[in-house]
Amino acid sequence: MKSWLCLVVFAACSAGDDTATGSHANCAEGGAINDDCTGPLSTAQDACWKMVDCGAISINSGDIDKHFDWGACVDRIETSIDIEQTLIINCVAASSCDALKVQNSPQNPNPNAMACLRLGGQR
After folding, report:
1. Alpha-carbon span 65 to 7, nearest angstrom
2. How large is the greatest C-alpha to C-alpha distance in the chain, in angstroms?
3. What is the rounded distance in angstroms from the CA atom of residue 17 to the CA atom of residue 121?
4. What does the alpha-carbon distance between residue 104 and residue 107 come to, in Å, rounded to a whole number?
């Protein structure tokens, strides 16, 4: 009887589906934002917003010329040729949040270190 009681107590105290941690608590699971929260990614803006939501880049670094932020991300993708844009967007869509982050994310990431952006060639 005690073993059943222990199992019930353990089940009641363990983390379940109702737990939420981190800045993406309603949408993140294991370093990835759920598709239910972001929807499909079809534009450069969508891909860059996912990178912001994941903490890979900042919305506005305040220093446009030196830091890679949302606007620079959109520009980088949109200035790529069509097939590169598609590859980058699909890569970002398929990546977990942890995979999108690089050293110094989100304040001053090196875009050439981001695997998905390398699909568009280094600049």
Report:
1. 58
2. 68
3. 40
4. 6
Tokens of 17: 């589906």
State the Cα–Cα distance between residues 117 and 85, nearest whole angstrom.
9
Global model pTM greater than 0.85: no
Q: What is the pLDDT of residues 66-119, one digit of tens each?
A: 789 999 999 999 999 999 999 999 999 999 999 999 999 998 899 999 999 988
Helix, strand or coil, per DSSP, at residue 26: coil
> Distance between CA 107 and CA 94 in Å, rounded?
23
Q: Which amino acid is at 15?
A: A
**In the chain, what are the domain boundaries?**
28-118
Three-state DSSP string of 31-66: CEECHHHHCCCCCHHHHHHHHHHCCCCECCCCCCCC
For residues 21 and 111, give the distance between their C-alpha atoms in angstroms, rounded to a whole number. 28
The Cα–Cα gap between 62 and 20 comes to 31
